[in-house]
Amino acid sequence: MSIMSYNGSAIIAMVGKDCVAICSDLRFGVQHQTLATDFKKIFKINDECYVGLSGLGSDMQTLRQRFVFRHNLYKLREDRNMKPSTFANMVSAVLYEKRFGPYFCEPVIAGLEPDGTPYITGMDLLGAMAPASDFVVAGDNTESLFGACESFWRPDMNPEELFETISQCLLSGVNRDCLAGWGGVVTVITKDGQFTRSLKGRMD
User: Fold this and answer.
1) Half-sphere exposure (CA, 13 Å, Cβ side) for 130?
2) Residue 109 near residue 11, CB atoms below 8 Å
3) What is the pLDDT at residue 93?
4) Exposure string for 143-160, b = 16+ CB within 10 A, e = fewer
5) Of 29, 31, 33, 124, which residue is most buried, by most CB within 10 angstroms?
6) Domain 3-199 in this protein, CATH class
7) Closest among 140, 126, 127 to 54, alpha carbons compared
8) Domain locations in the chain?
9) 92: left (phi over 0), alpha (psi -120 to 50) or beta
10) How far apart are the C-alpha atoms of 172 and 156, rounded to whole Å?
11) pLDDT digit string (tens) for 77-112?
């Protein structure tokens, strides 16, 4: 088994019209043994930027602390929040610093730029960014997640349509993955604010 699949994860970020959504499953396991069903994989950086982390659970926690620390330093120095594209470049630099002994973690970043433009990007272990204009996925069953997203996504969805679409994509994807699931959590970011909702999924 790959170390990237050891704890199990499924993360999707998706673009709508002047809004963006990011979601993850809630399972934390050791290979096929489930240890927790409320494990956070999406973290708020500021009101316009969220990061989802998939991979090894311990590296996810370490990176979350490093990203929050770097963002706080930036905020103290610049007296403003990082915009998502700036945050993505910082994340890329942090991962590339450790390229000879990388963190086993693939971040997904979602947010709104200051002009209201949605921004999403995925990354590999070494920080190589892959920005997209529709959706990005990460986790140990990306084939099923990609297939669901390609079927359901359409351009210019409003926040409620985006929430429904990304929810169905996540639930459909993890139904075909024994290492992820046990419900999910979805955050939708709009220029007027954010809302977060929980999803119920298969519990087996």
Assistant:
1) 14
2) no
3) 95
4) ebbbebbeebbeeebebe
5) 29
6) alpha beta
7) 140
8) 3-199
9) alpha
10) 22
11) 999 999 999 999 999 999 999 999 999 999 999 999
Q: Which amino acid is at 125?
A: L
Closest CA to 161 of 128, 193, 186: 186
CA distances from 24 to 42, 75, 194 (A): 7, 27, 16
- H-type alpha helices, the chain: 57-78, 84-97, 142-152, 159-174
The model carries a pTM of 0.91
Q: State which amino acid sits at residue 119.
A: Y
Q: For residue 178, report the phi and psi dihedrals to the nearest 5 degrees.
A: -80, -10
d(CA 8, CA 25): 9
The Cβ of residue 9 has, within 10 Å, a number of other Cβ atoms equal to 31
Angle at 111 between CA 94 and CA 126, to 5 degrees: 25
Residues 13, 195: Cα–Cα separation, whole Å: 15
